[in-house]
Amino acid sequence: MDDRKSLTMNQVMLPFQANVSGNVHGGEIMKYMDNVAGATAIRYAKANVVTARVDELQFLRPIAVGALVTCTGKIAYVGRTSMEIIVTVDVEDMQSGRGPQRALSAFFTMVALDSTGRPIEVDPFVPESDDEKELYAMAAARREDYKKRRQ
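^ thats the sequence. predicted structure below, dont judge the formating
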């Protein structure tokens, strides 16, 4: 299995990341997700990347200070110069033992760039597992929908 296809990062949420109620700001989680998507795409493309698109983010549960957040990026689809990364966020209350539970997920489209900032081609992606094939089919359908809406 190609270890460039996924990446996981863990972080304990700290007070400076939260509002006065002790819930982590959504923007902190979105930034974390973007970092994971970027690192996943850089690892796969072996090149610098930029975020071109993020689909809908819907928070399923609040994330509290002290929670362990696990953010996983996984290659879902690769075009000529872009990659679609599914990023999932799971939250675990380490003191009570509750979790991990899914807090949210989103698809990030990342574009590989050369040293002058121009898009470059990336290695093709061939889904192998049933999970990868399902993600790839969903991403391909979403990509076609994006193209139709842009026209």
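Helices lie at 26-45, 130-150.
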